[in-house]
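User: Sequence in, structure out. Go.
Assistant: Echoing your sequence, followed by the structure tokens.
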Amino acid sequence: MIDSRPWMLLLFAVVFAVLFYLLSPILMPFAAGALLAYLGNPLVHRLERLGLPRNWAVGLTFFTLLTGVAVALAFLIPMLWKQFLYVEAKLPTLLRWFNRDATPWLEGHLHVEINRIDMDLVTEWLSGYWSDAGAVAGNVLTRVAASSLSILSVLGMVGLVPVVTFYLLLDWDDLLQRIRDLLPRHVEPRVSQLAAECDEVLAAFLRGQLMVMVALGVIYFLGLQIVGLRLALIIGMAAGLGSIIPYFGFAIGIVAATVAAVIQFGSFQDVLKVWAVFGIGQAIEGWILQPYLVGDRIGLHPVAVIFAIMAGGQLFGFVGMLLALPVAAIIMVLLRHGHTLYQQSRLYQGEVEASRIITEDHDANG
């Protein structure tokens, strides 16, 4: 008789993938809520160990998350708005610097010909932008009324995130236990072991890397603010967020900060101060943040990180990008186990050697 279990599992996986693809436009609040619940659940456990009931621990954790997000937005939005206005005012100066100084230097060192930016075309584009902005402002009420359903839909999706987060936090442990109870008894120990390893990797990557990103963003922002750079917040945030890919955040941050320092200060001494800020940030990341907050448990190569984000965005849009790295981390754990099984198989070792290894593993595990 043919064993139908592999075909049942394959059918289940195909159905799940199809449903995930079809429902991806509405999955954003649920994916974001699940991610926030996963990040907040350790804090709930700590509060429970201090003697708080589960409901009180979840309520306090949820209040802390909401308060943190609200304070961050109240602090960041006004500063970001001012810096965006500054960028807009300095854009012509930046373009002139690129034509007059940067382009000849690049041509001399790279031995290539670079087309100059047409300042008249940029001025015409900016004028048209402001004209369009005025027309949009005149018709804004009409457009809002015409698109009220889509606006309400977006607001509803965003409003669902805290609701989903709260209820998932409340029932997180029960959900995990129910999933464990549904597993066939003969595979439950192995699946629980794999799940524990996946959780360790996800905790190291999501919680650890998130703290590293925030810490680096704050370090770069404060350092550039001390130096006096007007775009300290924008560049610091970009460098911190970009640090999810090793050295990518550092690269975009130091290049953007160098250009901004040249435009604002015009002296090499101030550029050296900017470089010193990023050098200190890299030293703190390498010696303190990465070893203590992330460690060496992730196993994701930088190229794998880039591919996972791009593949997730290509297949499932924003939801895919949100879930790409957790899924990639889980796949890495499964691949490591698959690699171990392959090395113990008859295909790799030969029939006699594989039998000996399996017997030794069986004896060692009792």
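User: And one key feature?
Assistant: Residues 26-182 form one domain.
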